[in-house]
Every structure is written in C-alpha cells, then in structure tokens.
C-alpha cells in the first residue's frame, strides 16, 4: 500500500518538476512534501517489517525444528516397524510349509461309532441343530438327559446341550465344556 502511494506521489512530483515555471511553486512544494512524507512512511513500514521479520522468522524456525523432530521420530518408528515386519517375513519364509488338515469331529480315541450312545450321551460326527448341520472342529456330543453335578469339577448340563469333548479320562469318562 505504502509503495503504491509513494510511486504515485513520485510521478506527480516528477510531472510538476518538469513543468516548473508553468505550475505554481506552491503546487511543486506540496508535491515534494507529499513525496517525502510517503517516502518516510514506506521506509518506516519496511523497517518495521524487517524488525518483525526477525521475530516471525525465529518463530518459523522453531516451528520447522518441531516439525523436523516429529518427522525424525516418525521415521524411526516406521523404520523399526519395517524391520520387525521384515523379520516376520524372514521367519515365515524360512519355516517349512504346512498343509491344513481339518480336525475330525469324533476322534478315533473315542472308539465310538457314528450316532452311538454311551453313558447317556449320544456321540455323532455332526449334530443336527434346528434343521441344519453344525460342524465342530473338536469332538462333541449331545446330552440325552439332564445331569446335575454332585462333585466339584463335574459338568452340569440339560437334555439337548452340545458338549465339546476336551479329554478322555478313561473308557467311560470324558472331560468337556458346554458351548
């Protein structure tokens, strides 16, 4: 703003100076005063800008330093993550390939055929539930009647409950849990 005003007043002064003698001296004198006033305002504005510029640049430098620290930390975190991921890739690629083998629903250790009954519990390779077949990845059975536990560690269940078998204690007893 001040520079445009200064430029306009300089042009006015130059014009009146060239026409010296044809224009009254008072107008030339006023043009000189306005030009000098605008020149002083422009110089003062530039000085203030440069003084403030040091403060603004200092604040900008602090901001840039903080941003640089942030990005250095981000870089360190990402490099650490990249290293960990590369280690996982190396470990996974050095392991022998394994094939997926589904676990049987009824294991051979149960030695109970499909849809047989033993100790009040029906064993089946799949349990019918509301008309659809529900396959489990562990041996399971369906309770034929209610059982109230009498001792600590015994599992209570109701008729129709699905029990996942976790361990065979002996020929007649199994450990399990309710689904």
TrEMBL record:
Keyword Kinase listed: no
BP-aspect Gene Ontology terms: synaptic vesicle uncoating
Record keywords, A-Z: SH3 domain
Domain BAR: 1-94
Residues in SH3 domain copies: 136-179
Pfam families found in the cross-reference section: BAR, SH3_1
CC terms in the record's Gene Ontology section: cytoplasm; glutamatergic synapse; presynapse
tRNA processing found in the keyword field: no
Membership in a protein family: Belongs to the endophilin family.
Name of the protein: SH3G3 protein
Organism: Todus mexicanus (Puerto Rican tody)
Gene for this chain: Sh3gl3
């Amino acid at each position: 703003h001040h520079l445009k005003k200064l430029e306009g007043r300089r042009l006015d002064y130059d014009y009146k100076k060239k026409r010296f003698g044809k224009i009254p001296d008072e107008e030339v004198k006023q043009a000189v005063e306005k030009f000098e006033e605008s020149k002083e305002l422009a110089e003062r504005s530039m000085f203030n800008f440069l003084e403030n510029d040091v403060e603004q640049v200092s604040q900008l430098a602090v901001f840039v330093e903080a941003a640089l620290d942030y990005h250095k930390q981000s870089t360190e975190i990402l490099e650490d993550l990249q290293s960990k991921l590369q280690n996982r890739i190396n470990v996974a690629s050095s392991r022998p390939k394994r094939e997926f083998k589904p676990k049987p629903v009824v294991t051979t250790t149960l030695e109970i055929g499909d849809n047989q009954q033993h100790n009040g519990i029906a064993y089946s390779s799949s349990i019918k539930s509301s008309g659809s077949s529900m396959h489990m990845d562990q041996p399971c059975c369906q309770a034929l009647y209610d059982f109230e536990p009498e001792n600590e560690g015994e599992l209570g269940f109701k008729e129709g409950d699905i029990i996942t078998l976790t361990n065979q204690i002996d020929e007649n007893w199994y450990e399990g849990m309710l689904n």
